[in-house]
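**User:** My hope is that you can spare some time for a protein that puzzles me. I have put the entry right below:
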Amino acid sequence: VQLVESGGGLVQPGGSLRLSCAASGFTFSSYTMSWYRQAPGKERELVAAISSAGGSTNYADSVKGRFTISRDNAKNTVVLQMNRLKPEDTAVYYCKGRGSWGQGTQVTVSS
């Protein structure tokens, strides 16, 4: 199983970023996929999850209405679109699938 995140970076408050996770080594379309984040000194927390076929999603209360999770089972990718970013969204964002984790991508929201 391999999960590779991309798309992190530095953005100003109110800005947007699009994170992508490329998956390989397992039957991607059979598994729920999730995004987690971990800020310095805090526990890793669930940000968003999407069911195997993409018909069901759930979000942390802190990101509802700002973040959107989606997937493309033909391309084995899961995307987290993040809008109206806040400084408190600063964290390392991780993709999770089939019990495995990606290496993480840093998102920093700062002016």
